[in-house]
Amino acid sequence: MDSNLTVGGVQQLVETEGHFTNRHQPVLQAVLSDGERSIEVVISTLLSHLVKSEQIAEYTLIKVKTYQYNITDDNIHIVSISKIEILENNPGGVIGNPASVLDSDSAHKKDVKNGYHYFNVDDGDWDNESDKEDPLTWSLEEPSDFCDWTIEVTRIGRHGKAKDNLASSNKSQLQRYHVHKAILSVGPRRSEYFATLFRQDHLSEFSTNTSRINLEESAADVFPSVLDYIYSEKTVMFTSKNATAVRHLAHYFGVRLLWKFASVYIKGDFGLETAATYLSEALLYHDDKLVQASVDILAECIEEVSRRTLTKLPPSSFERIVTSPHLKCRSKKLSDIVLKYCQAQGESVDMPLLMKWTKYERMPSVSRKAALPLLKIAVSREEQAGVNLADTHNVLRTRCVEACVEEWKETLAKPLLALESRDKNISRILGCQSVEHRDLPKEIQVELLEKALCAAKIELDDVKAELLYREEQVEELSKNIRKPASAS
């Protein structure tokens, strides 16, 4: 028996409970005994099923011989009862004067008859099945046995608003969990949050015995697993998708062991393949350390990360990666990655974001395949922003034009030559709109073609110079061959 269970302390507890349950209403009493001392406490909730089944009558004073209980600062919670003895009937009695039980241990032992006086049966007559009580459990629909608190969980979206019914698929926006205060607030798996809450009965929650909590989707999904963990010996089935949410709930509700288990799982599961998932969840729950670790590994190994994984990230997450000081990516490879992301995300990538991701220091050159599509995106974002960066040095637009001109045979000439192979009419070729660069603004098309012509001329001049040089070499070689022949 705990040293806190003094006679005075118990009397105060009994009187307090009697006050809150209304002294003049039928209330069950029990005597708890450890063999040497006995204490009288109100356990009406736990023993009410004995009254309903007519095993004992109201106002019956009983001794609980085998029981388990937990003690908080201001209450005693009976967890389970397996053996009782009826001591005496107390018709018309009320709570508030337990002195008959508490005055002295010796008087109590002298006056109270034991179970043999009432039952006169041996253990063989007892129905062993009655000892096997189902453990207390939380419930979603109707309250289960002895539930005395409700937790209302509302799913919220990424902007902190309740999700509408269509967006939340088939999952209910609001779910009610009927629980037991004694289970949530005591024991090695207890919730420090609820243990503290239940000691402050002046709070508004006590008017309805309800806690109302808003949770992100992933946290709302795993909330039942957290309740299972508190209620039983069950372990949570961790995955990359739920581990961060479980750790968040464990921290929020103060379930220390569960927080440690979640942290151990994350440490072992974290890697390049799971980093994007952890990044999204860590941002959701403001887990700064996990966010930084995820960004660092994705930035260092971005060329190895699947494009599909990257394109699923929100722009804010993608920005953290491509602007990270840990970024290790070749310039042309980065241009391919940025292009795929812009194509997947569409209008969510505006001009400021695009310029930030494609700074010259980060992306000095653009790949041949990405040049023309990126040029279209850059021009489109300029038009949306109402600016023209045609004459601006080193912006993305300029680098894309340079890459197109540098590879003019592939980006500009090859599509036209392909048309020529099918149709020799030059007018139709020039008017064909299926050529990729034709949907660019006319001035940019002209710029591309002019620079391509210049590049072609330079290349042609280089070829001419090379041919002239080779002709001179051939002529010199021929002279050298004829001289020995003349001498002979």
Automatic annotation (TrEMBL):
Q: Which SMART domains match?
A: BTB (SM00225)
Ranges where the BTB domain occurs:
147-239
Entry superkingdom: Eukaryota
- What's the short name of a Pfam family annotated to this entry? BTB
SUPFAM superfamilies in the cross-refs? Nucleic acid-binding proteins, POZ domain
Q: Which PANTHER family match?
A: BTB DOMAIN-CONTAINING PROTEIN-RELATED, HL07962P-RELATED
Name of the protein in question: BTB domain-containing protein
Source organism per entry reads: Thalassiosira pseudonana
Organism lineage: Eukaryota, Sar, Stramenopiles, Ochrophyta, Bacillariophyta
